[in-house]
Amino acid sequence: MSVMNSKMEELFIFLDKGASLLEEHESFTYLEGLSEMGENLFQGEVVQTVTPEVKDRLYDLMRPLDVSEFSKEDIRKAFQLTVLKGMKGATQPNHSMTPDAVCLFLSYLVNKVMAKAKGGYSVLDLAAGSGNLLTALLNQSENPAKGFGFEVDETLLKLAFVSSNLQEIELELFHKDSIEPLTFPEVDLVVTDLPIGYYPHDEIAKEYKVKADEGHSFSHHLMIEKGINSVKEGGFLFYIVPNFLFESEQAPKLHAYLKEHAMIHGLLQLPKTMFTSDNHGKSILMLQKKGEGVSQAKQALLAELPSFSNKTALTDMMTRINKWFELELNL
């Protein structure tokens, strides 16, 4: 969870009060209201058709704010916290968000593998949600980066759009299921917090090598294959995956596919304290697409990450990981 500073808190209060007002008096859900409040802030005026009383109250909330005073991370984190609040009341099971500590750790890994991309690089998120992970990566990137994101949920996509506009981030967003056929240029990097579950569209899934022999295929397996097809040769992929990824009945096909098309460089188990039970535990899977000059690390990076609040243990772990990158991948 993000620790609030005064500017972030100021923006959080604005977004929260405005979204609650639109939810209470107009035909918006809280999450829809958040994107509407972000749009008002971006445009500098109330753009919704609302009653005069609500419009006056929205302007009262807006007047003290100067968007130029907020840093990109203030904006991202204020949206993150309000979206988390809204998700508690949402019924959609796919409404979840990558924890901030995981976003920052992934940013560290991305900066390691993209350190030599001084001229810039492209990064794709196949399930962008409200854009929190993708915008965190772009904000923390040490080299120029352009983001691309796919999201099937229209409410979350609009939140990502408004948040990235306010952060002035170079990001293209698409309202589309990324497992469907796409015509899209190859990217340098793929980072996705994979949605877990069965994919309902068997006609689309049958075009994939990792499809199930019978019944529905796992959407997270299909998305792993889509990412490998979407990244350039030698490009890296970071997926947040369930700890049981290689233990399910569909796992052998996935494992065979990965052995043929990618190098499995590492699996970093996220701290157990982040999850309500071992069954919900997740890891970061690090892959590299096969290509000219790409070789398998002699020793894969396998580790159980310490609690992100344990700074000493985390520093020790990052020292180990830095040494691994240097020895195994020359990065």
From TrEMBL:
One GO molecular-function entry: N-methyltransferase activity
Ranges where the DNA methylase adenine-specific domain occurs: 98-304
YtxK-like N-terminal helical domain ranges (all copies): 9-87
Family matches, as Pfam families: N6_Mtase, YtxK_like
Highest taxon of source: Bacteria
Transmembrane portions of the chain: none
PANTHER family xrefs: ADENINE-SPECIFIC METHYLTRANSFERASE, DNA METHYLASE ADENINE-SPECIFIC DOMAIN-CONTAINING PROTEIN
Name of the protein described by the UniProt record: Uncharacterized protein
Source organism (scientific name): Alkalihalophilus pseudofirmus (strain ATCC BAA-2126 / JCM 17055 / OF4)
